[in-house]
Amino acid sequence: MTCIAVSALSHIGPNVMLTAATQPPGPVRSGPGTTVRVHPGPGRGLVQMFRNRAGGAAARRRQRPRREEFPVATALLVLDMLTDFTSGKLANPAAGQIIEPIAALTQAARERDDWLVVYGNDAHRPGDFELAVFGEHAMAGSPGAAVIDQLAPQPGDVIVPKRYYSAFTQTDLDATCRVHGISRLVVTGQHTDCCCRHTSYDAFARGIKVIAVSDATAVYEPFAAGRYQQAQDDALHYLRTYYGAEVTSTAALV
Predict the structure, then answer these.
(1) Which of 7, 45, 137, 214 qualifies as a FRET site for 101, CA 20 to 30 Å off?
(2) 9 CB contacts (<8 Å, ≥6 apart)?
(3) 3-state helix, strand, coil in the chain (%, to 5)
């Protein structure tokens, strides 16, 4: 191994190992595996500092996991499981059958470090466009706009009030997804062919993977006119076809 005596740093290459020495150096040569012997002098401390920094950076590169090794961040979104949508002004008889699956999903999500529970709740104000279609419902601050007791939010959950079908429209859900690095959105609640559908599109447009839970979502049964299951299947098919949504069950996720 060739030794080089240096008194400055200008000619030290990236693959050169630095050591201190007092003996005269041999012929000068640079390249991988070259040892540079630094004679004691005023620049020796600076050389040592750079050597320590270079070694620390290399160690951090070796320890840093590859991007694919990071866990996928997932948000469990519970849409409009409110009093007015279950037993109030827009009561949906089909809502009762999805309460238990959603409860199981929220419990499982809260036990996982890489999952976040988010509630997207109608909180309307007078004059909201949606009221012209469905009438007054889930008005902000009213009992009808409260999440039902069986699915009450817990500390650490995120509440997103909304005034449109999509939980992304003029809310902070987009910022929430960015802050938490959300890559997957698990969609539950009501209604599969309305708020779930519009929210799923906005997630898709942001590059977020959509997962629709078949037994934890429901269409509005009064609009299904005796064909509830067909309407639900059609709504899930739409999400799969146009947004690439993965349609799965509660049992597959808990």
Answers:
(1) 137
(2) 43, 46, 47, 50
(3) 40, 25, 40
Mean pLDDT (whole number) for 28-34: 48
pLDDT the model gives residue 16: 41
Percent of the chain with pLDDT over 70: 72
Among 63, 80, 104, give the residue marking a domain's end. Answer: 63
Whether residues 223 and 114 fall in one domain: yes
Amino acid at 248: T
- Three-state SS at 200: helix
Containing structural domain, residue 18: 3-63
* Mean pLDDT across 112-133: 96
Residues 55 and 110 in one domain: no
C-alpha–C-alpha distance, residues 196 and 123, integer Å = 16
| Residue 205, token pair as written in the block | 């447009």
What is the distance between the terminal CA atoms of the chain, rounded to a whole angstrom? 60
Contact 187, 157 (CB under 8 A): no
Rounded to two decimals, the pTM is 0.73
pLDDT value at residue 63? 52
Q: Are residues 188 and 73 in the same domain?
A: yes
